[in-house]
Design a protein that fits this description.
Length: 405
């Protein structure tokens, strides 16, 4: 397979758009249907109205669908149709959240507004669940790390396996519900989803992405064990996706209370991610020149770069790359059971993916260490296996069941 340049968001299997970044985000958002997120028909209608590669039409159509579905949610709730209202509110989040995908969080107020509308709908939907998740706020360096704790049932005296779920460089904590929470609850796992510095809305609070992610992870574990008696401290696992593929392996090199960790997929050196996927600093500067010559053509690319600058508290691409030079993981220091789940596209197409996987297998000292490649011929080769969440959950939880007992 041809080696891949740029971010791992040029899907080999296309759904709708020629613009690879548009199609990647569309695939990811549509994949949430597995766990009560976007509906296929609504998603396909949105896509039919979007001008390929045009961020403004993307924003407009996702917002419009969110507003239509929200009106249905309000009407159902007003008439006492709780299940219909719940399902509609949960879908609303995905559309409002999706609307912000190609906006600049620093310069475009619509980014924060769209996420805010989505979060409000998510919280309304959550309160209509049979057992609502508990909103969590973990004290950390004078701020709060937001999250949700999902319990298997209302019996707080029964200790259960618990999964700590961590997102990546693009995610908000609510995204993680659609990624895995319903699948975990069906398998009798509690789930704690949380945003760490740099994730979700935390850059607006002055908490930026950092190398020592083990520090906030420790704060989360301390808080969880102090507040949730239903967590079995001997059967805790942590799972990170996308940029969480750096956070989780880095965290468990210092935080030893987890019995197992899963990454989709492992990142051992974050500076190499930027160098190989985004391209050179000169290319990034060239995009800015091209934007002056061809307005809006490169808006989606520039706004994605600006989002990462925002999340790391960097003013420029130069500074962003510099800030990640110390974002490294020594797999020899990982002492818990480890699963590295890699989408086939990234394993074969992104050079470091295979190299990092092989290094983990060679250096991790725990006897239970495994690499699983999610196959393209089962629709699981996209970043984070976001296009087949049923397959992802099957792989991850079967492995965790065997590991945790």
């Amino acid at each position: 397979m041809k080696k891949q340049a740029g971010l791992p968001r040029d899907p080999r299997n296309r759904y709708r758009f020629k613009n690879p970044t548009f199609d990647f985000f569309f695939q990811w958002l549509t994949g949430t249907q597995t766990n009560n997120g976007a509906e296929l028909g609504e998603s396909m209608y949105i896509a039919s109205q979007i001008k390929d590669g045009d961020p403004e039409s993307w924003y407009r159509e996702f917002m419009a669908m969110g507003e239509r579905v929200e009106e249905r949610a309000k009407a159902s709730l007003a008439n006492g149709h709780i299940i219909s209202a719940r399902e509609s509110y949960l879908r609303c989040y995905v559309y409002y959240r999706g609307a912000a995908a190609f906006l600049n969080p620093r310069s475009d107020i619509r980014y924060r507004q769209a996420y805010g509308k989505g979060r409000d709908c998510f919280r309304k939907g959550n309160q209509l669940l049979d057992l609502p998740m508990e909103e969590v706020y973990v004290p950390f360096e004078g701020k709060m790390l937001p999250g949700y704790f999902a319990r298997v049932d209302g019996n707080r005296n029964t200790k259960r396996r618990t999964l700590f779920m961590i997102g990546g460089g693009d995610t908000f904590v609510e995204d993680l519900y659609y990624y895995i929470v319903p699948a975990a609850l069906r398998r009798n796992y509690n789930v704690l989803c949380v945003d760490l510095p740099g994730q979700g809305s935390l850059p607006w609070e002055g908490l930026y992405w950092r190398a020592d992610m083990e520090t906030p992870v420790k704060a989360v574990v301390d808080y969880a064990l102090a507040h949730f008696p239903e967590i079995d401290p001997d059967r805790m696992a942590i799972y990170g996706i996308s940029g969480g593929g750096y956070i989780v392996p880095r965290a468990v090199t210092r935080e030893k209370r987890f019995k197992a960790c899963v990454a989709c997929s492992v990142i051992l050196n974050f500076s190499q991610v930027w160098d190989s996927r985004i391209g050179s600093v000169e290319d990034a500067l060239l995009f800015r020149i091209w934007r002056k010559l061809q307005p809006r053509r490169f808006d989606s690319i520039l706004n994605i770069l600006a989002t990462y600058e925002w999340r790391w508290g960097a003013a420029t691409i130069n500074e962003l790359v510099a800030k990640t030079q110390d974002h490294v993981v020594d797999p020899a220091q990982i002492t818990c059971a480890t699963l590295n789940l890699v989408a086939e596209q990234e394993y074969n197409g992104f050079g470091a993916g295979r190299r990092w996987a092989e290094e983990c297998l060679a250096k991790i000292t725990h006897s239970r260490k495994e690499l699983i490649v999610a196959p393209r011929n089962e629709g699981g080769d996209s970043h984070g296996v976001g296009t087949n969440l049923s397959l992802m959950s099957q792989i991850v939880f079967d492995w965790l069941d065997d590991t945790l007992g």
